[in-house]
């Protein structure tokens, strides 16, 4: 029989009590219903989610929470209820009370203010307010990285598309919540920042990025937040994951996602909370009973069922059956209970839970928080462009001129004065934040004319002039719009997520064209576009000359917008993340003419440029002496290549060269050279800008890579960064936080080298065997191995080697039952492969010391004794090199984890590089 740990109450031997503490539930209504009372009293549910459907005011919320806690206390709960709330600010709040609860900018709006300290203060103020009414768990911070920012429904709920910036602001917010006494919950793991939507309302959106890609971007903020030790819980998303190493229908039901990735790899020890299992796709595919069991099996500690009583009872029955069927052990339940109770002890007590300070505290702190709200909104408003100096309006139009405001039809925010007023008139049922996801109501755009009515009134009052205001819809520009446009001298168009609501983009472009035509005829027709949600609506559309971003359309945001338009203050907000960085970095003081590389015209100049670089380079880069122009031209039908030059057309001298390649969705910058005598005059920047623009425009581009194995001139940025290259590339928009370290190694004298004692015997005892193949006829297993474990350019490297049957071969390492464990390319001195991998060429003056090559060792990560397999492959390569009369061996493209076992064999590191992979969105303004 399972025994309890000493720190668990004997009460938890009762299965009903234990199961109830693993559930977090909600309901519809502003009062305690018999159903929610029954869940707490009879089923011992220990955590409650409150939404906008439950909350009318601060005072009502405090009474409601106090009643819930009293019910739990009287029912014998040893610990208070966890009371959870979504209060992200911006458009996603559950509690609104204009007298006591302040509005603050969205997460992206806070980042636009460029102050992590401000984000901390906003989070602490938010947490202090909701804590005053009895909330003890805030579902935040949002740690998603908007990898595909323009088209994701998460929008301004996310901080941005730069994982480091998301980490910075996410951790600042998390610390603010903690310092106000709340438990924190990061979301939405592993990421809602780059989802593919399949169309049907029952389809589950999926993540298609590989784990490597996720690790480079999406997982970074989660990893960093976990490392602080201040993240109490993690909200596990309901999305699917489809990539070569993982096929998951629902992340929150996957042991791979929770136990393997979140706990084992990222080291998270807190509470894992599932996405709401009432989502239609999950109910129809699996059923709530089985889904609840699967969530617990996967590692969830709290399973969320947010509203339907019959479904909640089904989940409880499912957990009991799971225990009866021995799918869930008591040890598994006790593990979750300990995590949940540890979190409860950190954020609540019965004294605190039964006596929320409520209005008495809120009335004291409200003035200070209101001042903070005003400052936060003023700091967040961003004027991206004002090419014709239209702002402020008093400077560009007379008071008697008519101003036209055109606004889309949007759904009122759940927690807002408008929703409150409409609810009181029984005209609108407030949606919960979970409705947007669980019940597939993703779009913010729905019918409703009143959202921007107060904006129009405020703007008219502020400028003391006439204002025309009407809405626009998917029906496009109608006669009423044409008439009003003809009357007005200035038109303001409001957009809200125009990239996902394309009628807004079409309407705005139509009006912009009309204004251009009317201006051409001599009429005054100024146009200002205001994005009140995603800043990506027209950030890159230079045809819109005046563009303002507010990052949400709460009353406070619209008030700040009016003050900007009327010149009450000068806005300082910026675009989020990499969009801001790349715009700033790629804006050059000097632009050089960049041309396509022409072999007949430029090969000699490129050779001269390479020699100049070799003379000016560190000793580790002396292989440039033997690098020739043809090294960059693969002429491979599977790889698109485009190379660029900056040249002196009079002398034919090359001042700079950039090599780019495109293969299977990956754009690669394989080399970037600038004449040492011509540096610091923006030649490299001009080349990079042209190269990145060309790659970003490739259909199907998924990622950008800096460094390449084939050709293997530069495997990445040289690790010896004496020239400051890392900072240069970082200024160019590259995120250099997570490199893959690659190296070229050598045995400098094969005649003096011998295998380490016992190595061959260890290989034999492990049952590892080797064979050497030539030509593509026997290479199917090799190519399959490469597809599974390497980038596509490595595949082309192996294909090239297999075609060179006289000088190249591939060694295969096999385990039991002929399973393929690893491969490596072997080439004899003078191989054609050396033309593309310069370290395989003897240095000048050492032509009588031929070099044998061992290239691209690749061992399956799942291979038993992987280090021994790698050493065996290297050993076979060295034997072949000796047989080919090589003076020395060069082992090229050694991945970081393989470095140590090869050093133990006597290899020396010659050159080290850092390869980087980024999202093409880093340079989306170039596309």
Automatic annotation (TrEMBL):
Pfam families the record matches: Glyco_hydro_3
InterPro entries found in the cross-reference section: Acyl_CoA_acyltransferase, GH, Glyco_hydro_3_C_sf, Glyco_hydro_3_N, Glyco_hydro_3_N_sf, NagZ_Beta-hexosaminidase
Domain of life: Eukaryota
Listed Gene3D superfamilies: Glycoside hydrolase family 3 C-terminal domain, Glycoside hydrolase, family 3, N-terminal domain
GO terms, molecular function: hydrolase activity, hydrolyzing O-glycosyl compounds
Domain named Glycoside hydrolase family 3 N-terminal: residues: 16-342
Protein name, UniProt field: Glycoside hydrolase family 3 protein
Source organism of this protein record: Chaetomium fimeti
């Amino acid at each position: 029989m399972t025994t309890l740990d000493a720190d668990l109450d004997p009460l938890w031997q009762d299965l009903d009590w234990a199961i109830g503490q693993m559930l977090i539930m909600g309901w519809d209504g502003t009062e305690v219903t018999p159903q929610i009372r029954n869940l707490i009293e009879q089923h011992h549910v220990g955590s409650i989610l409150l939404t906008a459907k439950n909350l009318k005011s601060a005072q009502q919320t405090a009474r409601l929470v106090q009643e819930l806690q009293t019910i739990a206390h009287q029912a014998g709960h040893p610990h208070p209820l966890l009371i959870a709330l979504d209060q992200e600010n911006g458009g996603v709040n559950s509690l609104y009370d204009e007298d006591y609860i302040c509005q603050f900018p969205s997460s992206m709006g806070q980042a636009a203010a460029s102050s992590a300290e401000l984000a901390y203060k906003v989070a602490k103020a938010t947490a202090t307010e909701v804590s005053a009414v009895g909330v003890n768990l805030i579902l935040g911070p949002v740690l998603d990285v908007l990898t595909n920012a323009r088209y994701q429904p998460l929008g301004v709920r996310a901080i941005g598309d730069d994982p480091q910036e998301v980490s910075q602001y996410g951790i600042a917010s998390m610390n603010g919540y903690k310092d106000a006494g709340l438990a924190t919950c990061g979301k939405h793991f592993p990421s809602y920042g780059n989802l593919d939507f399949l169309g049907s309302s029952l389809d589950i959106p999926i993540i298609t990025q590989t784990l490597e890609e996720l690790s480079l971007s999406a997982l970074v903020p989660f990893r960093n937040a976990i490392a602080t030790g201040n993240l109490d819980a993690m909200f596990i998303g309901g999305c699917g994951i489809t990539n070569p190493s993982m096929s998951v229908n629902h992340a929150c039901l996957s042991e791979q996602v929770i136990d393997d990735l979140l706990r084992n790899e990222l080291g998270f020890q807190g509470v894992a909370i599932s996405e709401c299992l009432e989502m239609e796709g999950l109910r129809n595919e699996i059923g709530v009973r089985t889904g609840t069991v699967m969530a617990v099996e996967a590692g969830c500690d709290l399973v969320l069922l947010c509203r339907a009583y019959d479904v909640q009872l089904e989940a409880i029955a499912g957990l009991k059956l799971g225990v009866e069927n021995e799918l869930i052990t008591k040890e598994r339940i006790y593990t979750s209970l300990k995590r949940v109770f540890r979190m409860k002890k950190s954020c609540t007590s019965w004294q605190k839970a039964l006596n929320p300070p409520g209005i008495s505290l809120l009335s004291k702190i409200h003035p200070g928080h209101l001042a903070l709200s005003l400052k936060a909104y003023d700091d967040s408003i961003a004027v991206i462009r004002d090419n014709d100096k239209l702002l402020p309006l008093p400077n560009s139009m007379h008071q008697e001129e008519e101003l036209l405001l055109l606004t889309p039809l949007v759904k009122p925010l759940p927690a807002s004065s408008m929703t409150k007023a409409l609810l009181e008139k029984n005209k609108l049922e407030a949606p919960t934040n979970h409705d947007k996801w669980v019940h597939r109501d993703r779009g913010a755009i729905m019918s409703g004319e009143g959202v921007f009515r107060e904006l129009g009134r405020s703007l008219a009052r502020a400028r003391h002039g006439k204002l025309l205001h009407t809405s626009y819809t998917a029906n496009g520009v109608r006669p009423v719009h044409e008439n009003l446009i003809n009357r007005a001298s200035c038109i303001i168009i409001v957009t809200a997520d125009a990239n996902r609501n394309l009628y807004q983009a079409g309407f705005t472009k139509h009006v912009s064209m009309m204004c251009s035509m009317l201006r051409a005829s001599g009429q005054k027709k100024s146009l200002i576009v205001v994005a009140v949600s995603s800043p990506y609506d027209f950030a890159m559309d230079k045809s819109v000359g005046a563009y303002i971003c507010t990052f949400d359309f709460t009353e406070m945001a619209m008030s700040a917008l009016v003050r900007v338009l009327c010149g009450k203050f000068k806005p300082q907000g910026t675009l989020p993340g990499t969009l801001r960085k790349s715009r700033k970095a790629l804006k050059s003081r000097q632009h050089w003419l960049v041309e396509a590389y022409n072999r007949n015209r430029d090969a000699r100049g490129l050779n001269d440029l390479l020699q100049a670089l070799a003379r000016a380079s560190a000793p580790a880069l002396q292989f440039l002496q033997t690098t020739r122009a043809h090294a960059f031209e693969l002429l491979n039908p599977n790889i698109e290549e485009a190379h660029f030059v900056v040249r002196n057309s009079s002398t034919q001298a090359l001042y700079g060269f950039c090599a780019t390649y495109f293969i299977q969705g990956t754009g690669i910058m394989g080399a970037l050279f600038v004449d040492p005598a011509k540096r610091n005059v923006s030649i490299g920047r001009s080349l990079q800008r042209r190269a990145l623009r060309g790659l970003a425009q490739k259909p199907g581009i998924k990622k950008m890579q800096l460094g390449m194995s084939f050709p293997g001139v530069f495997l990445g940025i040289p690790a010896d960064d004496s020239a400051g290259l890392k900072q240069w590339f970082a200024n160019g928009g590259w995120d250099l936080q997570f490199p893959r370290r690659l190296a070229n190694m050598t045995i400098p004298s094969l005649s003096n080298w011998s295998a380490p004692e016992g190595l061959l015997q260890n290989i034999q005892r492990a049952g590892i065997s080797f064979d050497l193949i030539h030509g593509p006829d026997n290479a199917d297993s090799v190519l399959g191995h490469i597809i599974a474990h390497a980038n596509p350019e490595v595949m082309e490297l192996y294909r090239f080697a297999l075609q060179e049957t006289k000088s190249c071969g591939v060694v295969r390492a096999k385990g039991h039952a002929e399973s393929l464990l690893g491969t490596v390319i072997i080439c004899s001195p003078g191989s054609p492969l050396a033309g593309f991998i310069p370290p395989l060429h003897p240095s000048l003056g050492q032509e009588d010391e031929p070099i044998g090559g061992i290239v691209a060792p690749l061992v399956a990560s799942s291979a038993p004794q992987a280090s021994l397999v790698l050493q065996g492959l290297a050993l076979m390569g060295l034997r072949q090199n000796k047989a080919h009369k090589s003076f020395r061996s060069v082992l090229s493209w050694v991945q970081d984890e393989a470095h140590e076992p090869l050093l133990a064999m006597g290899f020396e590191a010659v050159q080290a590089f850092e390869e980087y992979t980024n999202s093409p969105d880093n340079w989306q303004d170039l596309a």
